[in-house]
Amino acid sequence: MSYDYQIAVIGGGSGGLTVAAGAASFGASVALIERKSELGGDCLHYGCMPSKAMIEAAREVHQAGLYSDFSESDYDRLFTGAMERVADAVKDVQNHDSKDRFIKLGIDIYEAEAQFIDEHTLQVGEETISAKRFVIATGSSPVVPPIEGIDSIDYLTNESIFSLRKRPTSLGVIGGGIIGSELAQAMSRLGVDVTVVEGGQQILAKEDKEITELAEGLLSEEMNVITGAKVERLESTNEGVKIHYTKEGSANSLNVEKLLVATGRKANIDGLGLEQAGVETSNGSIAVDAAMRTTQRHIYAVGDCNGSMPFTHVAGMEGKIAVSNAVFGLSRKASYEKVPWVVYTGPEIYHLGLTEEEAKEQYGEKLLTFKTKLADNDRFMAERHTDGLVKVLTTNRGRIVGAHAIGEGAGEWMQEIGTVQALNKKFQAISNIIHPYPAKNNVVTQTADLYWREKLFDSSLNEALKWYVRKFR
Ligand SMILES: Cc1cc2nc3c(=O)[nH]c(=O)nc-3n(C[C@H](O)[C@H](O)[C@H](O)COP(=O)(O)OP(=O)(O)OC[C@H]3O[C@@H](n4cnc5c(N)ncnc54)[C@H](O)[C@@H]3O)c2cc1C
Ligand SMILES: NC(=O)c1ccc[n+]([C@@H]2O[C@H](COP(=O)([O-])OP(=O)(O)OC[C@H]3O[C@@H](n4cnc5c(N)ncnc54)[C@H](O)[C@@H]3O)[C@@H](O)[C@H]2O)c1
């Protein structure tokens, strides 16, 4: 049977673009279907890029604010400038993901909503196209919880917040996960009075508990954080929105000009016609095996739509695996143990592998925990950035099972541990690498040195060594 294409990719975001470019560069005939007029997906338009541009602009305003007293009108001007800068950054990166670039690779791009008609055919706008294999990479959208009154509120999500140009005086943020925490702090640094309302007992609950506690303390210095709060009702007022919530059984309310909903993500699967293609879902996402195959062997799903780990670098990793498997017929499998992430708050949070709580459960007595406070490191002391902690979890032989940090720039200097782990080296190997002094990753070496201290100096071997030195040297 002949098909129009060897591979049809649905969705032109981080996952879909990796697959389309990879498959085309290996000689496959590729169709890429994206419903928006521009490629790039959430990461470029409503996610990583605008949020990181805003975080950096806000950091600069915050820094400058340490040396001058900004008036309300200064903040109005700085806010508008920051948001225009965000839009410019997105435009610049858009050039990198331009349609032209992909057309030059030989890819046919369709600007339309794709829907399966059967297991080898898609309805693409007015046309139908057939393909031998498919990769679904349709991403995710914000979850909007069914709170009473929410439908009558003009709330913001990550899809609309970056379009603000006028500074709101106040912002309520429902949800203190990664999106809520990053955006809340940035807004606060741009002169907005921010209150985060989190349903759980802590914000950033996916992080190691000790790191979360430090983060919550530091973020609370810059904005209001209410945890353990159940939002009962939202009411539209002349000034904006009234949030009615209960905390520890008592009813409270809060007036804000704008409201951001950041309560998690749901896979974009509605209207895809998955049933016509025989593709099954699990917990609201497309079910895949480790080779990224759906319940139909010729249809793969990568990125946020498969519910694995909603990060751009994961969509990229899964996309590369789907290319190997779909183009070359291999059975490469994804592994998530060595996937780090970074929360881009100030200070940053680095997360790799198991948290201490998870690792204790898995490794019990065999778990070793090494910690260094940034306050004990020369560089962080010199720069007055002593708020923070490095925590590394290993087996008793030094195999890295988790690494966590909160600290200025932690997303960059902690990745040394991720690299060592990916190369299947032991944590103590870092002690043998000479780091320029006083580079920030010296704090990683300092932590690795604790392994040797534990093994050599806190053991009976130490007594034997001392005896040897006294007697023979
Ligand atoms: C505010 C925010 C900040 C973030 N920051 C980071 C970060 O710093 N680092 C990080 O790693 N991750 C970050 N993420 C997560 C990251 O954006 C996603 O994990 C990533 O975009 C997922 O890529 P994807 O290809 O699965 O989906 P997307 O990039 O969303 O692409 C999916 C594409 O499919 C299209 N589509 C959907 N359905 C159809 C259809 N039926 N037909 C045709 N086209 C369709 C959509 O229009 C979209 O363009 C952030 C997310 C948010 C919301
Ligand atoms: N730096 C990064 O890499 C980065 C940045 C942003 C987003 N992301 C990705 O996007 C994903 C989604 O982020 P997110 O913050 O939307 O989700 P999340 O799951 O991390 O956090 C959602 C938070 O909202 C709370 N919540 C849910 N319903 C609520 C309600 N009704 N009232 C009060 N609180 C409520 C939850 O308890 C949770 O703390 C992340 O898990 C991450 O994978 C990554």
UniProtKB/TrEMBL annotation:
Cofactor binding: number and manner: Binds 1 FAD per subunit.
Presence of the UniProt keyword Nucleotide-binding in the record: yes
SUPFAM superfamilies assigned: FAD/NAD(P)-binding domain, FAD/NAD-linked reductases, dimerisation (C-terminal) domain
Entry GO MF terms: flavin adenine dinucleotide binding; NAD(P)H dehydrogenase (quinone) activity; oxidoreductase activity, acting on a sulfur group of donors, NAD(P) as acceptor
Amino-acid positions noted as binding FAD in the UniProt annotation, renumbered to this chain: 52, 138-140, 304
Disulfide pairings: 43-48
InterPro entries named in the record: FAD/NAD-bd_sf, FAD/NAD-binding_dom, FAD/NAD-linked_Rdtase_dimer_sf, Pyr_nuc-diS_OxRdtase, Pyr_nucl-diS_OxRdtase_dimer, Pyr_OxRdtase_I_AS
Cofactors required: FAD
Pfam families the record matches: Pyr_redox_2, Pyr_redox_dim
Pyridine nucleotide-disulphide oxidoreductase dimerisation domain span: 339-445
Alphabetically ordered keywords of this record: Disulfide bond, FAD, Flavoprotein, NAD, NADP, Nucleotide-binding, Oxidoreductase, Redox-active center
Residue sites binding NAD(+) per the record: 175-182, 198, 264
Domain FAD/NAD(P)-binding per the UniProt entry, residue ranges: 5-319
Domain of life: Bacteria
Family to which the UniProt record says this protein belongs: Belongs to the class-I pyridine nucleotide-disulfide oxidoreductase family.
Protein name: FAD-dependent oxidoreductase
